[in-house]
Amino acid sequence: MADIRRIAVFTSGGDAPGMNAAIRAVVRTASHYDLHVYGVRRGYQGMIENDVKRMETRDVGNIIQRGGTILKTARSKDFMNPVGRAKAYDTLKAHDIDAVVAIGGDGTYTGAMIFSEEYDIPFIGIPGTIDNDIFGTDYTIGYDTAVNTAIEAVDRIRDTADSHNRLFFVEVMGRHAGFIALSAGIGGGAGCILVPEYDTSIDALCDVLKKGVYKDKLFSIVIIAEGNKNGGAAEIAQKVQEQFNFYDSKVAVIGHLQRGGAPTALDRLLASRLGFGAVERLLAGERNVALGLVNDEVVATPFKEAISNKKDLNKELLRMASILAL
Ligand code: F6P
Asked: Quick one: which of 255, 16, 7, 51 has its CA closest to 134?
């Protein structure tokens, strides 16, 4: 067993439902092994500014069901330079921290990897982002909740779209990744799904919509990931209207609604497993890896690999969605 007595935990980057469940799992598992846990507020920025508090098992009571993160989160520019990282190291040393659990996305992992190359403190990463765009895990914490929120919104839009025979352009999150759009599009019965990973031209989109009209589709919903190449929902709606104005069209941007709310059962379970696994693996001597769930097994991927590999969006599911739409 590695000689670890004090660990730190923090959340960083965009928040994600289930981060609290992960914090809880880290604190409770550490407490089980008689470790002291320190919570770092506001991610790397809090580490630089010594915004640290001792966390005991009761501090994480009644949070498993809460969205957001009790430790707050931030995107720290200061941590990107060596001076900031030196201050962060001073903070960890001041609290005698032996190891760190970092909960966040690829920016968080990049920071952890650089830091662990400069300083001899083991880090373990846990994937917390609604985007699901992390290599080395089938799912990230928060993704399932975000997809459910998006589908619930699409269901509501569907009612009014049907009543008025309208075409709705619904924009979901995903600056660089189409996982939310793909899942919400399939689950929400979208007529077409636009993702950043694969280009769909406006002409191709109009063709799909026309096919729907030939098949007596009186309303339709197009799901758009914010990072797709044609622009945002409003821009796309306008371009489509110029070519094809069979429907009266409307736009809805779900936005940050997808980032909040109580985590689903799947996210709570995933967060609990990864938080628990992070502490046990640190104690087993693992370091500078990101944990993930692959085929229902908790696995570790070196930060470098997790960052440099892109997780593929399943193109076959896009093909399926286009068949099921008509
Ligand atoms: O959490 C990931 C993500 O939701 C992206 O899909 C989105 O573009 C981005 O964060 C927005 O982040 P913020 O609201 O923190 O600027």
From this structure: 16
